[in-house]
Amino acid sequence: MGVRRTSFLGCFILAVLGLIISAPILCRGGTTSSFVRKVEKTIDMPMDSDVFSVPPGYNAPQQVHITQGDHVGKAMIVSWVTMDEPGSSTVLYWSNNSKQKNKATGAVTTYRFYNYTSGYIHHCIIKHLKFNTKYYYEVGIGHNPRTFWFVTPPQVGPDVPYTFGLIGDLGQSFDSNRTLTHYELNPIKGQTVLFVGDLSYADNYPNHDNTRWDTWGRFVERSVAYQPWIWTTGNHEIDFAPEIGETKPFKPYTHRYRVPYKSSNSTAPFWYSIKRASAYIIVLSSYSAYGMYTPQYQWLYEELPKVNRSETPWLIVLLHSPWYNSYNYHYMEGETMRVMYEPWFVQYKVDVVFAGHVHAYERSERVSNVAYNIVNGKCTPVRDQSAPIYITIGDGGNIEGLANNMTEPQPEYSAFREPSFGHATLDIKNRTHAYYSWHRNQEGYVVEADKLRLYNRFWHPVDDSTTAKS
């Protein structure tokens, strides 16, 4: 009996020692936020909310939005919808200090989706704009015109400061409105939004109710009519519904939202690139074919060597489904794309990758998993200062609610995670430094729930991790 007690005591001591020794390993994964929020169900705003209101007057243009119209920022795509009749597709525009109005003419399109018929969707490209200039523009000529403005980016250059906002998975709930308001009032003023996919969530409603595309367009007009949003497609843009006879993917999205994909020699609007100030931005599609020999694969293979880090030092990638994700939602959905493209991201020293899809926030350390070849067992991500930081920001506030179920223990590659709605900003200072911050909706505009000074991988590749090294 005494032998048994001694044996048991010895095993107990060994077990305790084992827990003590292993504790640092379990804690190496950075921070899971301790922020406690009031538990509230995410609720859509009523259809009669003022954010959805139709502008007054016959055939008044609505759902006005802009995005970059060429590769370098000297053109703007202006889009809007008229409901009563096609009206004019002309845009009048003039610079801040000019009295002379210039004219550009676009085209109009419509589409049908099940039992829905769209309004008249106008797209017009304004070309040959001057850099760093404020322009006013007028749409709806001939009936009830409306006037807006935008500021073109500075000329592309290695030390040009510029500030991007970051929003994803927005939808049209009360939380969506809080996110957009929070972004608009942030004292770190974003000049362009990098949007990482999932716009209206129209496909969440019966028969993919496309009137929800209209309400969403009116909701976000207050921002996207004045500063360009750079569009990424998400799963909620696919709108593939053979059960109701809709078999053409992305139909509503491609009719409503145009991007300058041809200027970067892309063959489809779902993957493309732009230069803006000191950043080279590559947009990829998680829901288009990306395997070897596909158009997206071939385009990216040819695109990455074109990036001149002496001209645009910051290399940023946008996609929808995250590659590194420690939530139990959409877990490993981005894995096959990661396997295909991650070696290129390390080779070309991508600075940061932004994704959505998971309705929460997470930031990784600089890690890679490129050594794994299915037979060598090297399947654990490792610290890699040539790798990007991966940031999931699918926390815009949509009707599906927060993703609050996380894998435990927190993996080593995860530096910070929190299931809250919010937005982020990326403030590029020069070729070596940028300042990144994430802002949860529940707190004041100046509060930074997560922040990081980013060091450029090409010009200043020092360690910018925020947790202890393994």
Automatic annotation (TrEMBL):
Family per UniProt?
A: Belongs to the metallophosphoesterase superfamily. Purple acid phosphatase family.
Protein's name in the database: Purple acid phosphatase
Q: Name one GO molecular function term.
A: metal ion binding
Q: Keyword set for this entry?
A: Disulfide bond, Glycoprotein, Hydrolase, Iron, Metal-binding, Secreted, Signal, Zinc
Q: Which gene encodes it?
A: PAP
Question: Cofactor(s) for this protein?
Answer: Mn(2+); Mg(2+); Zn(2+); Cu(2+)
Q: Does the keyword ATP-binding apply?
A: no
Per the database record, which ranges form the Calcineurin-like phosphoesterase domain?
163-361
Which superkingdom?
Answer: Eukaryota
Q: Where is the signal peptide?
A: 1-22
Source species taxonomy = Eukaryota, Viridiplantae, Streptophyta, Embryophyta, Tracheophyta
Q: Where in the cell is it found?
A: Secreted
Q: How does it assemble?
A: Homodimer; disulfide-linked.
Give an example GO cellular component term for this record.
Answer: extracellular region
- Which segments constitute the Purple acid phosphatase C-terminal domain? 387-446
Please write the reaction equations for the catalytic activity of this protein. a phosphate monoester + H2O = an alcohol + phosphate
- Species of origin reads Nicotiana tabacum
* InterPro entries per UniProt: Calcineurin-like_PHP, Metallo-depent_PP-like, MPP_PAP, PAPs-like, PAPs_C, PAPs_N, Purple_acid_Pase-like_N
EC number(s) on record?
3.1.3.2
Keyword Cytoplasm assigned to the entry: answer is: no
Q: Which residues cross the membrane?
A: none
Chief location category:
secreted
For the Purple acid phosphatase N-terminal domain, which residue ranges apply?
A: 61-150
- Alphabetized CDD domains for the sequence: MPP_PAPs
